[in-house]
Protein backbone atom coordinates (compact mmCIF):
# COMPACT_ATOMS: atom_id res chain seq x y z
CA UNK A 1 0.00 0.00 0.00
CA UNK A 2 2.84 2.37 0.95
CA UNK A 3 4.73 1.85 -2.28
CA UNK A 4 1.52 2.38 -4.26
CA UNK A 5 0.91 5.81 -2.75
CA UNK A 6 4.51 7.02 -3.12
CA UNK A 7 4.97 5.84 -6.67
CA UNK A 8 1.80 7.47 -7.92
CA UNK A 9 2.43 10.71 -6.08
CA UNK A 10 5.71 11.27 -7.96
CA UNK A 11 4.07 10.20 -11.21
CA UNK A 12 1.17 12.68 -10.96
CA UNK A 13 1.28 15.41 -13.67
CA UNK A 14 2.26 18.95 -12.75
CA UNK A 15 -0.47 21.56 -12.57
CA UNK A 16 -0.49 23.67 -15.70
CA UNK A 17 0.06 27.38 -15.22
CA UNK A 18 -2.75 29.68 -16.21
CA UNK A 19 -2.35 33.12 -17.74
CA UNK A 20 -4.56 36.08 -18.36
CA UNK A 21 -6.25 36.32 -21.73
CA UNK A 22 -6.40 39.67 -23.42
CA UNK A 23 -8.27 40.36 -26.63
CA UNK A 24 -6.11 41.72 -29.43
CA UNK A 25 -8.75 44.33 -30.25
CA UNK A 26 -8.47 45.84 -26.71
CA UNK A 27 -4.72 45.59 -26.30
CA UNK A 28 -3.02 48.94 -25.85
CA UNK A 29 -6.25 50.95 -25.64
CA UNK A 30 -7.09 53.29 -22.78
CA UNK A 31 -10.48 54.33 -21.47
CA UNK A 32 -11.89 57.53 -23.01
CA UNK A 33 -11.93 60.67 -20.91
CA UNK A 34 -15.44 61.65 -22.00
CA UNK A 35 -18.49 60.02 -23.47
CA UNK A 36 -20.89 61.82 -25.79
CA UNK A 37 -24.65 61.82 -25.58
CA UNK A 38 -26.93 63.87 -27.88
CA UNK A 39 -23.85 65.67 -29.23
CA UNK A 40 -22.83 67.10 -25.82
CA UNK A 41 -19.82 65.93 -23.81
CA UNK A 42 -20.53 64.42 -20.37
CA UNK A 43 -18.02 63.45 -17.72
CA UNK A 44 -18.01 59.77 -16.76
CA UNK A 45 -19.68 59.34 -13.37
CA UNK A 46 -17.34 58.59 -10.53
CA UNK A 47 -18.13 55.29 -8.78
CA UNK A 48 -19.05 55.46 -5.11
CA UNK A 49 -16.80 53.64 -2.63
CA UNK A 50 -18.97 52.52 0.35
CA UNK A 51 -16.04 52.32 2.80
CA UNK A 52 -14.85 55.79 1.86
CA UNK A 53 -18.34 57.26 2.35
CA UNK A 54 -18.68 55.50 5.72
CA UNK A 55 -15.32 56.92 6.79
CA UNK A 56 -16.61 60.43 5.95
CA UNK A 57 -19.75 59.83 8.04
CA UNK A 58 -17.73 58.67 11.05
CA UNK A 59 -15.61 61.85 11.05
CA UNK A 60 -16.46 65.39 12.12
CA UNK A 61 -18.14 67.75 9.63
CA UNK A 62 -19.64 64.68 7.95
CA UNK A 63 -22.58 66.60 6.53
CA UNK A 64 -20.53 69.26 4.70
CA UNK A 65 -17.97 66.67 3.56
CA UNK A 66 -20.74 64.53 2.05
CA UNK A 67 -22.05 67.57 0.21
CA UNK A 68 -18.57 68.25 -1.19
CA UNK A 69 -18.06 64.63 -2.22
CA UNK A 70 -21.37 64.36 -4.07
CA UNK A 71 -20.88 67.55 -6.01
CA UNK A 72 -18.54 65.48 -8.17
CA UNK A 73 -20.69 62.33 -8.38
CA UNK A 74 -24.33 61.44 -8.03
CA UNK A 75 -25.76 59.19 -5.32
CA UNK A 76 -27.87 56.48 -6.96
CA UNK A 77 -30.31 54.07 -5.35
CA UNK A 78 -27.87 51.18 -5.82
CA UNK A 79 -25.04 53.19 -4.23
CA UNK A 80 -27.18 54.14 -1.23
CA UNK A 81 -28.27 50.53 -0.67
CA UNK A 82 -24.68 49.28 -1.01
CA UNK A 83 -23.39 51.80 1.55
CA UNK A 84 -26.17 50.96 4.01
CA UNK A 85 -25.51 47.22 3.65
CA UNK A 86 -21.80 47.71 4.35
CA UNK A 87 -22.44 49.81 7.44
CA UNK A 88 -21.48 48.27 10.77
CA UNK A 89 -23.12 51.01 12.83
CA UNK A 90 -26.80 51.96 13.02
CA UNK A 91 -25.84 55.57 13.81
CA UNK A 92 -23.81 55.92 10.59
CA UNK A 93 -26.69 54.53 8.54
CA UNK A 94 -29.07 56.96 10.22
CA UNK A 95 -26.80 59.90 9.38
CA UNK A 96 -26.55 58.83 5.76
CA UNK A 97 -30.32 58.57 5.42
CA UNK A 98 -30.77 61.99 7.03
CA UNK A 99 -28.36 63.45 4.50
CA UNK A 100 -30.28 61.73 1.67
CA UNK A 101 -33.58 63.15 2.98
CA UNK A 102 -32.04 66.61 2.98
CA UNK A 103 -30.45 66.37 -0.49
CA UNK A 104 -32.76 64.08 -2.52
CA UNK A 105 -36.32 63.45 -1.32
CA UNK A 106 -37.04 61.15 -4.28
CA UNK A 107 -34.14 58.86 -3.36
CA UNK A 108 -35.18 58.86 0.31
CA UNK A 109 -38.63 57.55 -0.65
CA UNK A 110 -37.32 54.63 -2.73
CA UNK A 111 -38.46 51.32 -1.24
CA UNK A 112 -35.06 49.61 -1.69
CA UNK A 113 -33.30 52.36 0.29
CA UNK A 114 -35.86 52.28 3.11
CA UNK A 115 -35.64 48.47 3.31
CA UNK A 116 -31.84 48.61 3.50
CA UNK A 117 -32.03 51.19 6.31
CA UNK A 118 -34.65 49.15 8.20
CA UNK A 119 -32.46 46.05 7.92
CA UNK A 120 -29.34 47.73 9.30
CA UNK A 121 -31.30 49.40 12.13
CA UNK A 122 -32.52 45.96 13.22
CA UNK A 123 -29.20 44.14 12.71
CA UNK A 124 -26.84 46.80 14.05
CA UNK A 125 -29.18 48.71 16.34
CA UNK A 126 -30.47 50.17 18.42
CA UNK A 127 -30.07 53.63 16.95
CA UNK A 128 -30.50 55.91 19.98
CA UNK A 129 -31.72 59.51 19.61
CA UNK A 130 -29.43 61.09 22.18
CA UNK A 131 -29.41 64.84 22.90
CA UNK A 132 -25.96 65.14 21.33
CA UNK A 133 -27.10 63.33 18.19
CA UNK A 134 -30.23 65.47 17.84
CA UNK A 135 -28.20 68.67 18.27
CA UNK A 136 -25.72 67.43 15.68
CA UNK A 137 -28.34 66.78 13.00
CA UNK A 138 -30.16 70.01 13.85
CA UNK A 139 -26.97 72.02 13.30
CA UNK A 140 -26.58 70.28 9.93
CA UNK A 141 -30.02 71.43 8.84
CA UNK A 142 -31.55 67.93 8.95
CA UNK A 143 -34.73 66.78 10.65
CA UNK A 144 -36.29 63.50 11.74
CA UNK A 145 -39.17 62.95 9.31
CA UNK A 146 -42.33 60.98 9.97
CA UNK A 147 -41.11 58.23 7.61
CA UNK A 148 -37.81 57.94 9.46
CA UNK A 149 -39.43 57.97 12.89
CA UNK A 150 -41.72 55.10 11.86
CA UNK A 151 -38.70 53.09 10.67
CA UNK A 152 -36.91 53.77 13.96
CA UNK A 153 -39.96 52.76 16.02
CA UNK A 154 -40.27 49.51 14.06
CA UNK A 155 -36.58 48.72 14.68
CA UNK A 156 -36.97 49.37 18.42
CA UNK A 157 -40.01 47.10 18.48
CA UNK A 158 -38.04 44.39 16.72
CA UNK A 159 -35.34 44.70 19.40
CA UNK A 160 -37.90 44.61 22.22
CA UNK A 161 -37.29 48.19 23.43
CA UNK A 162 -40.90 48.94 24.37
CA UNK A 163 -39.95 51.37 27.15
CA UNK A 164 -37.76 53.39 24.83
CA UNK A 165 -40.59 53.54 22.25
CA UNK A 166 -42.91 55.04 24.87
CA UNK A 167 -40.24 57.46 26.04
CA UNK A 168 -39.52 58.78 22.53
CA UNK A 169 -43.24 58.98 21.65
CA UNK A 170 -44.01 61.01 24.77
CA UNK A 171 -41.39 63.58 23.68
CA UNK A 172 -42.25 63.59 19.99
CA UNK A 173 -42.75 67.37 19.97
CA UNK A 174 -39.01 67.86 20.57
CA UNK A 175 -38.45 66.21 17.18
CA UNK A 176 -40.63 68.82 15.51
CA UNK A 177 -43.41 66.30 14.84
CA UNK A 178 -47.02 65.89 15.87
CA UNK A 179 -48.76 62.57 16.57
CA UNK A 180 -50.51 61.12 13.53
CA UNK A 181 -52.50 57.96 12.94
CA UNK A 182 -49.54 56.54 11.04
CA UNK A 183 -47.11 57.17 13.92
CA UNK A 184 -49.61 55.74 16.40
CA UNK A 185 -49.95 52.64 14.22
CA UNK A 186 -46.17 52.16 14.17
CA UNK A 187 -46.05 52.53 17.96
CA UNK A 188 -48.94 50.10 18.57
CA UNK A 189 -47.56 47.54 16.09
CA UNK A 190 -44.07 47.70 17.64
CA UNK A 191 -45.41 47.44 21.20
CA UNK A 192 -47.46 44.38 20.22
CA UNK A 193 -44.43 42.76 18.57
CA UNK A 194 -42.32 43.44 21.68
CA UNK A 195 -45.00 41.70 23.83
CA UNK A 196 -46.17 44.87 25.55
CA UNK A 197 -49.90 44.69 24.89
CA UNK A 198 -50.85 46.86 27.89
CA UNK A 199 -48.79 49.80 26.58
CA UNK A 200 -50.26 49.26 23.10
CA UNK A 201 -53.79 49.60 24.55
CA UNK A 202 -52.73 52.70 26.46
CA UNK A 203 -51.58 54.38 23.24
CA UNK A 204 -54.74 53.21 21.46
CA UNK A 205 -56.88 54.96 24.10
CA UNK A 206 -54.85 58.20 23.71
CA UNK A 207 -55.38 58.44 19.95
CA UNK A 208 -58.63 60.43 20.03
CA UNK A 209 -57.20 62.96 22.49
CA UNK A 210 -54.50 63.70 19.87
CA UNK A 211 -57.13 64.02 17.13
CA UNK A 212 -55.96 60.76 15.55
CA UNK A 213 -58.63 58.32 14.43
CA UNK A 214 -57.91 54.56 14.50
CA UNK A 215 -58.04 52.88 11.10
CA UNK A 216 -58.12 49.29 9.86
CA UNK A 217 -54.38 48.90 10.52
CA UNK A 218 -54.80 50.03 14.14
CA UNK A 219 -57.46 47.42 14.83
CA UNK A 220 -55.56 44.69 12.98
CA UNK A 221 -52.45 45.32 15.09
CA UNK A 222 -54.44 45.07 18.33
CA UNK A 223 -56.35 41.99 17.15
CA UNK A 224 -53.00 40.40 16.31
CA UNK A 225 -51.76 41.15 19.83
CA UNK A 226 -54.71 39.62 21.68
CA UNK A 227 -54.92 36.63 19.31
CA UNK A 228 -51.27 35.79 19.99
CA UNK A 229 -52.24 35.38 23.64
CA UNK A 230 -55.46 33.51 22.81
CA UNK A 231 -57.70 36.27 24.26
CA UNK A 232 -60.26 35.77 21.52
CA UNK A 233 -63.24 37.34 23.29
CA UNK A 234 -61.38 40.64 23.31
CA UNK A 235 -60.51 40.05 19.64
CA UNK A 236 -64.21 39.65 18.86
CA UNK A 237 -64.97 42.88 20.73
CA UNK A 238 -62.29 44.71 18.72
CA UNK A 239 -63.74 43.24 15.53
CA UNK A 240 -67.19 44.61 16.36
CA UNK A 241 -65.70 47.98 17.25
CA UNK A 242 -63.77 47.98 13.98
CA UNK A 243 -66.92 47.32 11.95
CA UNK A 244 -68.86 49.96 13.89
CA UNK A 245 -66.16 52.48 12.96
CA UNK A 246 -66.82 51.69 9.29
CA UNK A 247 -63.82 49.45 8.58
CA UNK A 248 -64.49 46.07 7.03
CA UNK A 249 -62.21 43.26 8.21
CA UNK A 250 -59.93 41.86 5.51
CA UNK A 251 -58.19 38.53 4.98
CA UNK A 252 -55.42 39.49 7.44
CA UNK A 253 -57.99 40.20 10.16
CA UNK A 254 -59.67 36.84 9.69
CA UNK A 255 -56.37 34.96 9.50
CA UNK A 256 -55.35 36.40 12.87
CA UNK A 257 -58.73 35.44 14.33
CA UNK A 258 -58.31 31.87 13.08
CA UNK A 259 -54.89 31.72 14.71
CA UNK A 260 -56.29 33.20 17.93
CA UNK A 261 -59.13 30.67 18.21
CA UNK A 262 -56.63 27.87 17.62
CA UNK A 263 -54.37 29.27 20.35
CA UNK A 264 -57.39 29.30 22.66
CA UNK A 265 -58.15 25.67 21.64
CA UNK A 266 -61.56 26.70 20.31
CA UNK A 267 -61.19 24.88 17.01
CA UNK A 268 -64.90 24.85 16.12
CA UNK A 269 -65.02 28.64 16.22
CA UNK A 270 -61.90 28.79 14.05
CA UNK A 271 -63.78 26.85 11.38
CA UNK A 272 -66.72 29.24 11.77
CA UNK A 273 -64.38 32.07 10.80
CA UNK A 274 -63.82 30.35 7.46
CA UNK A 275 -67.58 30.17 6.90
CA UNK A 276 -67.90 33.86 7.76
CA UNK A 277 -65.22 34.67 5.18
CA UNK A 278 -67.08 32.75 2.49
CA UNK A 279 -70.33 34.58 3.30
CA UNK A 280 -68.54 37.90 2.86
CA UNK A 281 -66.81 36.76 -0.35
CA UNK A 282 -63.36 37.09 1.22
CA UNK A 283 -61.05 34.43 -0.16
CA UNK A 284 -58.89 32.76 2.52
CA UNK A 285 -55.17 33.01 1.79
CA UNK A 286 -52.63 30.22 2.08
CA UNK A 287 -51.64 31.71 5.45
CA UNK A 288 -55.27 31.37 6.63
CA UNK A 289 -55.36 27.67 5.80
CA UNK A 290 -51.92 27.09 7.32
CA UNK A 291 -52.99 28.86 10.54
CA UNK A 292 -56.08 26.65 10.75
CA UNK A 293 -54.33 23.33 10.14
CA UNK A 294 -51.21 24.04 12.18
CA UNK A 295 -53.36 25.49 14.96
CA UNK A 296 -55.49 22.33 15.04
CA UNK A 297 -52.42 20.09 15.33
CA UNK A 298 -50.94 22.44 17.94
CA UNK A 299 -54.06 22.58 20.09
CA UNK A 300 -55.32 18.99 19.79
CA UNK A 301 -53.75 15.57 19.89
CA UNK A 302 -52.39 14.78 16.38
CA UNK A 303 -54.86 11.90 15.98
CA UNK A 304 -57.82 14.09 17.00
CA UNK A 305 -56.67 16.95 14.75
CA UNK A 306 -56.44 14.54 11.81
CA UNK A 307 -59.99 13.28 12.39
CA UNK A 308 -61.40 16.82 12.67
CA UNK A 309 -59.65 18.12 9.53
CA UNK A 310 -60.50 14.96 7.61
CA UNK A 311 -64.14 15.50 8.43
CA UNK A 312 -63.98 19.11 7.23
CA UNK A 313 -62.59 18.00 3.87
CA UNK A 314 -65.22 15.26 3.56
CA UNK A 315 -68.04 17.79 4.05
CA UNK A 316 -66.68 20.25 1.51
CA UNK A 317 -67.53 19.24 -2.08
CA UNK A 318 -64.63 21.32 -3.42
CA UNK A 319 -61.24 19.98 -2.33
CA UNK A 320 -59.00 22.70 -0.91
CA UNK A 321 -55.42 21.99 -1.98
CA UNK A 322 -53.89 24.33 0.61
CA UNK A 323 -55.56 22.45 3.47
CA UNK A 324 -54.45 19.10 1.98
CA UNK A 325 -50.85 20.29 1.72
CA UNK A 326 -50.85 21.62 5.28
CA UNK A 327 -52.43 18.44 6.73
CA UNK A 328 -49.88 16.24 4.96
CA UNK A 329 -47.08 18.44 6.26
CA UNK A 330 -48.31 18.13 9.86
CA UNK A 331 -48.79 14.37 9.53
CA UNK A 332 -45.24 13.98 8.21
CA UNK A 333 -43.87 16.25 10.93
CA UNK A 334 -45.51 14.01 13.55
CA UNK A 335 -44.17 10.84 11.81
CA UNK A 336 -47.71 9.51 11.25
CA UNK A 337 -46.72 7.48 8.19
CA UNK A 338 -49.79 5.21 8.24
CA UNK A 339 -52.10 8.24 8.28
CA UNK A 340 -50.04 9.88 5.53
CA UNK A 341 -50.53 6.86 3.27
CA UNK A 342 -54.23 6.60 4.10
CA UNK A 343 -54.87 10.34 3.63
CA UNK A 344 -52.91 10.51 0.36
CA UNK A 345 -54.82 7.53 -1.08
CA UNK A 346 -58.11 9.15 -0.15
CA UNK A 347 -57.14 12.48 -1.68
CA UNK A 348 -55.84 10.83 -4.85
CA UNK A 349 -59.31 9.40 -5.49
CA UNK A 350 -60.61 12.98 -5.46
CA UNK A 351 -57.99 14.12 -7.99
CA UNK A 352 -55.44 15.61 -5.62
CA UNK A 353 -51.80 15.60 -6.77
CA UNK A 354 -49.20 17.03 -4.36
CA UNK A 355 -46.55 19.39 -5.65
CA UNK A 356 -42.95 18.26 -6.00
CA UNK A 357 -41.80 19.63 -2.64
CA UNK A 358 -44.74 18.14 -0.73
CA UNK A 359 -44.25 14.76 -2.40
CA UNK A 360 -40.59 14.72 -1.43
CA UNK A 361 -41.62 15.30 2.18
CA UNK A 362 -44.27 12.56 1.93
CA UNK A 363 -41.78 10.00 0.61
CA UNK A 364 -39.30 10.97 3.32
CA UNK A 365 -41.94 10.00 5.89
CA UNK A 366 -43.09 6.79 4.18
CA UNK A 367 -39.64 5.24 3.60
CA UNK A 368 -39.02 5.26 7.37
CA UNK A 369 -41.81 2.78 8.16
CA UNK A 370 -43.04 1.20 4.92
CA UNK A 371 -41.38 -1.44 2.80
CA UNK A 372 -39.64 -0.12 -0.29
CA UNK A 373 -42.07 -1.89 -2.62
CA UNK A 374 -45.04 -0.09 -0.98
CA UNK A 375 -43.23 3.23 -1.36
CA UNK A 376 -42.63 2.40 -5.02
CA UNK A 377 -46.39 2.08 -5.58
CA UNK A 378 -46.95 5.57 -4.17
CA UNK A 379 -44.06 6.88 -6.24
CA UNK A 380 -45.31 5.27 -9.47
CA UNK A 381 -48.84 6.59 -8.91
CA UNK A 382 -47.47 10.12 -8.49
CA UNK A 383 -45.54 9.86 -11.77
CA UNK A 384 -48.57 8.38 -13.52
CA UNK A 385 -50.62 11.43 -12.48
CA UNK A 386 -48.13 13.77 -14.07
CA UNK A 387 -45.92 14.44 -11.07
CA UNK A 388 -42.23 15.08 -11.55
CA UNK A 389 -40.20 13.87 -8.56
CA UNK A 390 -37.02 15.70 -7.60
CA UNK A 391 -33.61 14.05 -7.55
CA UNK A 392 -33.61 13.71 -3.75
CA UNK A 393 -36.95 11.85 -3.93
CA UNK A 394 -35.43 9.32 -6.35
CA UNK A 395 -32.47 8.97 -3.97
CA UNK A 396 -34.86 8.11 -1.11
CA UNK A 397 -36.48 5.32 -3.16
CA UNK A 398 -33.19 3.98 -4.50
CA UNK A 399 -31.65 4.02 -1.01
CA UNK A 400 -34.66 2.15 0.45
CA UNK A 401 -34.47 -0.46 -2.32
CA UNK A 402 -30.71 -0.83 -1.84
CA UNK A 403 -31.15 -1.40 1.88
CA UNK A 404 -33.60 -4.20 1.13
CA UNK A 405 -31.30 -5.68 -1.51
CA UNK A 406 -33.74 -5.17 -4.37
CA UNK A 407 -31.14 -4.67 -7.09
CA UNK A 408 -33.57 -5.51 -9.90
CA UNK A 409 -36.04 -2.73 -9.02
CA UNK A 410 -33.19 -0.43 -8.08
CA UNK A 411 -31.86 -0.51 -11.65
CA UNK A 412 -35.29 0.58 -12.93
CA UNK A 413 -35.38 3.72 -10.79
CA UNK A 414 -31.73 4.50 -11.50
CA UNK A 415 -32.59 4.40 -15.21
CA UNK A 416 -35.53 6.77 -14.60
CA UNK A 417 -33.21 9.26 -12.93
CA UNK A 418 -30.97 9.29 -15.98
CA UNK A 419 -33.83 9.42 -18.49
CA UNK A 420 -35.25 12.39 -16.62
CA UNK A 421 -31.96 14.26 -16.97
CA UNK A 422 -31.58 14.59 -13.19
CA UNK A 423 -28.02 13.20 -13.05
CA UNK A 424 -25.92 15.95 -14.51
CA UNK A 425 -22.84 16.47 -12.34
CA UNK A 426 -20.38 14.80 -9.99
CA UNK A 427 -22.52 15.50 -6.92
CA UNK A 428 -25.55 13.60 -8.22
CA UNK A 429 -23.34 10.67 -9.30
CA UNK A 430 -21.70 10.61 -5.88
CA UNK A 431 -25.09 10.44 -4.15
CA UNK A 432 -26.10 7.44 -6.26
CA UNK A 433 -22.76 5.76 -5.66
CA UNK A 434 -23.19 6.28 -1.93
CA UNK A 435 -26.56 4.47 -2.01
CA UNK A 436 -25.09 1.45 -3.82
CA UNK A 437 -21.95 1.30 -1.68
CA UNK A 438 -23.85 1.48 1.61
CA UNK A 439 -26.00 -1.44 0.41
CA UNK A 440 -22.80 -3.26 -0.71
CA UNK A 441 -24.02 -3.40 -4.32
CA UNK A 442 -20.51 -2.81 -5.57
CA UNK A 443 -21.01 -4.07 -9.13
CA UNK A 444 -23.82 -1.59 -9.67
CA UNK A 445 -21.63 1.11 -8.13
CA UNK A 446 -18.78 0.32 -10.55
CA UNK A 447 -21.20 0.34 -13.51
CA UNK A 448 -22.31 3.80 -12.41
CA UNK A 449 -18.70 4.88 -12.00
CA UNK A 450 -17.84 3.67 -15.52
CA UNK A 451 -20.80 5.56 -16.95
CA UNK A 452 -19.66 8.68 -15.14
CA UNK A 453 -16.19 8.38 -16.68
CA UNK A 454 -17.62 7.71 -20.15
CA UNK A 455 -19.63 10.94 -19.95
CA UNK A 456 -16.43 12.87 -19.32
CA UNK A 457 -17.29 13.85 -15.74
CA UNK A 458 -14.07 13.79 -13.69
CA UNK A 459 -14.44 11.92 -10.39
CA UNK A 460 -13.43 13.87 -7.30
CA UNK A 461 -12.06 12.79 -3.91
CA UNK A 462 -15.60 12.10 -2.64
CA UNK A 463 -16.21 9.70 -5.55
CA UNK A 464 -13.08 7.68 -4.80
CA UNK A 465 -13.60 7.73 -1.03
CA UNK A 466 -17.14 6.39 -1.47
CA UNK A 467 -15.98 3.51 -3.68
CA UNK A 468 -12.91 2.70 -1.57
CA UNK A 469 -15.09 2.64 1.55
CA UNK A 470 -17.59 0.32 -0.17
CA UNK A 471 -14.97 -2.19 -1.28
CA UNK A 472 -13.24 -2.02 2.12
CA UNK A 473 -16.47 -2.94 3.89
CA UNK A 474 -16.91 -6.04 1.71
CA UNK A 475 -13.25 -6.97 2.31
CA UNK A 476 -12.10 -6.51 -1.31
CA UNK A 477 -8.70 -4.94 -0.64
CA UNK A 478 -7.54 -5.53 -4.22
CA UNK A 479 -10.27 -3.28 -5.69
CA UNK A 480 -9.56 -0.69 -3.00
CA UNK A 481 -5.89 -0.62 -4.08
CA UNK A 482 -6.88 -0.22 -7.74
CA UNK A 483 -9.13 2.71 -6.88
CA UNK A 484 -6.38 4.27 -4.79
CA UNK A 485 -4.04 4.07 -7.78
CA UNK A 486 -6.72 5.68 -9.95
CA UNK A 487 -7.20 8.42 -7.37
CA UNK A 488 -3.53 9.32 -7.59
CA UNK A 489 -3.55 9.14 -11.39
CA UNK A 490 -6.24 11.85 -11.37
CA UNK A 491 -3.93 14.13 -9.40
CA UNK A 492 -5.85 13.81 -6.14
CA UNK A 493 -4.39 13.34 -2.68
CA UNK A 494 -5.76 10.84 -0.14
CA UNK A 495 -7.40 12.47 2.89
CA UNK A 496 -8.46 11.24 6.32
CA UNK A 497 -11.52 9.46 4.88
CA UNK A 498 -9.36 7.65 2.31
CA UNK A 499 -6.93 6.40 4.95
CA UNK A 500 -9.76 5.48 7.32
CA UNK A 501 -11.44 3.32 4.64
CA UNK A 502 -8.17 1.64 3.56
CA UNK A 503 -7.17 0.85 7.17
CA UNK A 504 -10.66 -0.50 7.86
CA UNK A 505 -10.49 -2.74 4.78
CA UNK A 506 -7.06 -4.08 5.74
CA UNK A 507 -8.27 -4.79 9.28
CA UNK A 508 -11.35 -6.60 7.98
CA UNK A 509 -9.03 -8.73 5.80
CA UNK A 510 -6.82 -9.47 8.85
CA UNK A 511 -3.84 -7.66 7.29
CA UNK A 512 -2.90 -6.01 10.57
CA UNK A 513 0.73 -5.21 9.73
CA UNK A 514 -0.27 -3.49 6.48
CA UNK A 515 -2.93 -1.53 8.38
CA UNK A 516 -0.30 -0.31 10.88
CA UNK A 517 2.05 0.65 8.04
CA UNK A 518 -0.72 2.61 6.37
CA UNK A 519 -1.36 4.38 9.69
CA UNK A 520 2.33 5.28 10.01
CA UNK A 521 2.37 6.61 6.44
CA UNK A 522 -0.36 9.17 7.18
CA UNK A 523 2.21 11.64 8.54
CA UNK A 524 4.11 11.55 5.24
CA UNK A 525 0.92 12.77 3.54
CA UNK A 526 0.34 15.44 6.22
CA UNK A 527 -2.89 13.75 7.28
CA UNK A 528 -3.50 13.58 11.02
CA UNK A 529 -5.25 10.44 12.28
CA UNK A 530 -8.55 11.00 14.11
CA UNK A 531 -10.41 8.98 16.74
CA UNK A 532 -12.07 6.81 14.08
CA UNK A 533 -8.72 5.63 12.70
CA UNK A 534 -7.48 4.83 16.19
CA UNK A 535 -10.69 3.01 17.11
CA UNK A 536 -10.52 0.83 13.98
CA UNK A 537 -6.94 -0.15 14.80
CA UNK A 538 -7.69 -0.70 18.50
CA UNK A 539 -10.62 -2.97 17.65
CA UNK A 540 -8.49 -4.95 15.21
CA UNK A 541 -5.50 -5.33 17.57
CA UNK A 542 -7.68 -6.34 20.51
CA UNK A 543 -9.67 -8.87 18.46
CA UNK A 544 -6.40 -10.55 17.39
CA UNK A 545 -5.04 -10.62 20.95
CA UNK A 546 -2.34 -7.95 20.45
CA UNK A 547 -3.19 -6.19 23.70
CA UNK A 548 0.34 -4.80 24.16
CA UNK A 549 0.26 -3.03 20.82
CA UNK A 550 -3.25 -1.76 21.50
CA UNK A 551 -2.11 -0.23 24.84
CA UNK A 552 0.82 1.47 23.09
CA UNK A 553 -1.57 2.79 20.46
CA UNK A 554 -3.83 4.17 23.19
CA UNK A 555 -0.86 6.05 24.66
CA UNK A 556 0.01 7.38 21.18
CA UNK A 557 -3.60 8.49 20.83
CA UNK A 558 -3.35 10.54 24.03
CA UNK A 559 0.01 11.96 22.94
CA UNK A 560 -1.67 13.24 19.75
CA UNK A 561 -4.25 15.10 21.90
CA UNK A 562 -7.03 12.77 20.78
CA UNK A 563 -9.12 11.63 23.71
CA UNK A 564 -10.36 8.03 23.63
CA UNK A 565 -14.14 7.62 23.58
CA UNK A 566 -16.49 4.81 24.61
CA UNK A 567 -15.61 2.82 21.46
CA UNK A 568 -11.89 2.96 22.28
CA UNK A 569 -12.43 1.68 25.82
CA UNK A 570 -14.95 -0.96 24.76
CA UNK A 571 -12.42 -2.46 22.32
CA UNK A 572 -9.78 -2.71 25.08
CA UNK A 573 -12.18 -4.02 27.73
CA UNK A 574 -13.66 -6.64 25.38
CA UNK A 575 -10.18 -7.82 24.32
CA UNK A 576 -8.94 -8.10 27.91
CA UNK A 577 -12.08 -9.92 29.05
CA UNK A 578 -11.75 -12.45 26.22
CA UNK A 579 -8.20 -13.14 27.44
CA UNK A 580 -9.47 -13.51 31.03
CA UNK A 581 -7.42 -10.49 32.14
CA UNK A 582 -10.14 -9.14 34.40
CA UNK A 583 -7.90 -7.00 36.63
CA UNK A 584 -6.48 -5.11 33.64
CA UNK A 585 -10.03 -4.75 32.24
CA UNK A 586 -11.19 -3.28 35.56
CA UNK A 587 -8.29 -0.79 35.55
CA UNK A 588 -9.24 0.36 32.03
CA UNK A 589 -12.89 0.58 33.15
CA UNK A 590 -11.97 2.82 36.12
CA UNK A 591 -9.85 5.03 33.85
CA UNK A 592 -12.84 5.43 31.58
CA UNK A 593 -15.00 6.52 34.52
CA UNK A 594 -12.39 9.06 35.66
CA UNK A 595 -12.52 10.64 32.19
CA UNK A 596 -16.26 11.10 32.58
CA UNK A 597 -17.20 8.50 29.94
CA UNK A 598 -20.41 6.61 30.73
CA UNK A 599 -20.38 2.84 30.10
CA UNK A 600 -22.89 1.56 27.56
CA UNK A 601 -24.53 -1.83 26.92
CA UNK A 602 -21.43 -3.12 25.08
CA UNK A 603 -19.24 -2.40 28.11
CA UNK A 604 -21.55 -4.27 30.47
CA UNK A 605 -21.97 -7.12 27.95
CA UNK A 606 -18.17 -7.64 27.85
CA UNK A 607 -18.02 -8.17 31.61
CA UNK A 608 -21.14 -10.34 31.62
CA UNK A 609 -19.74 -12.63 28.91
CA UNK A 610 -16.44 -12.94 30.74
CA UNK A 611 -18.16 -14.08 33.94
CA UNK A 612 -19.52 -17.26 32.25
How many angstroms separate the termini? Answer: 41 Å
Q: What structural category do the secondary elements indicate? A: mainly alpha
Q: Biggest sheet: strands, sense, closure?
A: 2 strands, antiparallel
Number of continuous helical runs: 35
In terms of topology, how is this protein built?
Elements: H1 2-11, E1 34-37, E2 40-43, H2 50-58, H3 62-72, H4 77-86, H5 90-103, H6 105-108, H7 111-124, H8 131-139, H9 146-158, H10 162-170, H11 181-193, H12 197-206, H13 216-228, H14 232-244, H15 251-263, H16 267-279, H17 286-299, H18 302-315, H19 321-333, H20 337-348, H21 356-369, H22 372-384, H23 391-403, H24 407-419, H25 426-438, H26 442-454, H27 461-473, H28 477-489, H29 496-508, H30 512-521, H31 531-543, H32 547-559, H33 566-578, H34 582-594, H35 601-610
Antiparallel strand pairs: 1-2
Task: Please provide a written account of the structure.
By secondary structure, the protein is an all-alpha fold. It has a domain at 46-140. Helix content is 69%, strand content 1%. The chain has helices at 2-11, 50-58, 62-72, 77-86, 90-103, 105-108, 111-124, 131-139, 146-158, 162-170, 181-193, 197-206, 216-228, 232-244, 251-263, 267-279, 286-299, 302-315, 321-333, 337-348, 356-369, 372-384, 391-403, 407-419, 426-438, 442-454, 461-473, 477-489, 496-508, 512-521, 531-543, 547-559, 566-578, 582-594, 601-610; strands spanning 34-37, 40-43. It has a two-stranded antiparallel ribbon with strand order 1-2. Strand 1 (34-37) and strand 2 form a beta hairpin. The longest helix is centred in the N-terminal third of the chain and has 14 residues, at 90-103. It is extended, with a radius of gyration of 35 Å. Mean pLDDT is 84; it is low at 1-45.
